[in-house]
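Technical annex, item 7. During the second reporting period the consortium partners agreed on a shared format for inverse folding records so that results from different sites could be compared directly. Each record opens with the tokenized structure and is followed by the designed sequence. A conforming record, contributed by the partner at site C, is shown below for reference.
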């Protein structure tokens, strides 16, 4: 089977599940070709796969930057609608390029992440080519009792509603990298939606040797790979942990500057990314239950289907919640 995998590396957690699928298809003898932004060509080389020439049109981060430019005075909801409008234009502009590729080569299947789904629906539908969507996390789709508002704020929600959700209905196959134990009650999931468990991939590399050095326990402070207003979490953690007998590893991702941190204590080090991240975090955990904090402001409404409760029931974490940054600092000191 000849598979075209259409993806971007600029959406944080969206591309690792796709590349996990690409690796699995390759290992089963299928011919996999990658199409996307420039960084995807490097990934293709690491996987031993062919990559078509990149095009700046495929870089979704450009659309995000344009949407977020000159946003002074906009409410979060207005900004969300602006981002959704810009991403809709970006998605429409993908169709000619994808159509050209599908015309030039006889692909049997196209596999995409959710933000490429609208383009795939148009280009593949016109040529009668089957296409699949690989999601990046928990289940979203028909049969879910959890509303989108429970997981997305006003800046993100319009794009999810207008671009991601409608496109899933037209796909021939939708893979969700989750398991039923992590989901709220589900009913009547469409036959083309499948919960397949974790789809893990990261570049081949060695974990830093300092993680194996003898010393105090490690504390991992990790924020989203997609840059957003979350450095206050890191500053709070570092301030609270600086006097404790621990070593602190902070991972910031590519979109943040370590110089923007308020202070870096002697017991902490900052990395943008720690390869291989999956094995490094497992090494940090040392088979101990992980303690998870919900850091937010305002009252917390715990329910049976929030991520913390699901984690507690599954036995992989313990949860304590705070209602302010001041409270989170006290929590770090006490534990």
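Designed sequence (site C submission):
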């Amino acid at each position: 089977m000849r598979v075209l995998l259409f993806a971007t590396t600029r959406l944080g957690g969206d591309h690792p599940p796709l590349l996990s699928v690409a690796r699995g298809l390759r290992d089963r003898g299928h011919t996999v070709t990658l199409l996307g932004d420039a960084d995807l060509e490097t990934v293709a080389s690491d996987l031993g796969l062919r990559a078509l020439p990149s095009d700046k049109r495929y870089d979704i981060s450009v659309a995000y930057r344009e949407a977020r430019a000159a946003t002074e005075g906009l409410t979060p909801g207005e900004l969300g609608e602006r981002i959704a409008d810009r991403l809709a234009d970006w998605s429409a502009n993908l169709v000619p390029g994808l159509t050209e590729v599908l015309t030039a080569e006889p692909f049997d299947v196209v596999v995409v992440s959710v933000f490429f789904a609208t383009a795939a629906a148009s280009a593949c539908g016109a040529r009668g080519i089957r296409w699949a969507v690989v999601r990046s996390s928990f289940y979203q789709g028909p049969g879910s009792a959890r509303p989108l508002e429970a997981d997305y704020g006003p800046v993100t929600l319009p794009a999810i509603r207008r671009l991601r959700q409608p496109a899933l209905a037209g796909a021939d196959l939708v893979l969700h990298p989750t398991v039923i134990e992590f989901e709220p009650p589900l009913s009547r999931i469409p036959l083309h939606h499948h919960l397949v468990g974790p789809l893990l991939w990261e570049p081949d590399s060695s974990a830093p040797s300092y993680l194996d050095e003898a010393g105090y326990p490690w504390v991992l402070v990790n924020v989203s790979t997609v840059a957003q207003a979350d450095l206050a979490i890191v500053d709070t953690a570092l301030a609270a942990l600086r006097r404790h007998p621990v070593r602190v590893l902070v991972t910031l991702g590519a979109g943040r500057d370590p110089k923007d941190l308020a202070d870096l204590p002697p017991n902490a080090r900052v990395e943008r990314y720690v390869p291989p991240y999956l094995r490094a975090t497992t090494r940090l955990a040392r088979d101990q239950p992980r303690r998870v904090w919900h850091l937010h402001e305002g009252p917390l409404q715990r329910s049976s289907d929030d991520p913390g409760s699901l984690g507690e029931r599954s036995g992989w974490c313990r949860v304590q919640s705070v209602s302010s940054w001041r409270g989170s600092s006290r929590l770090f000191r006490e534990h």
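Residues 2-195 form a domain with the Rossmann fold fold (CATH 3.40.50.2000). Residues 294-306 have pLDDT under 50 and may be disordered. All partners now use this format for quarterly exchanges.
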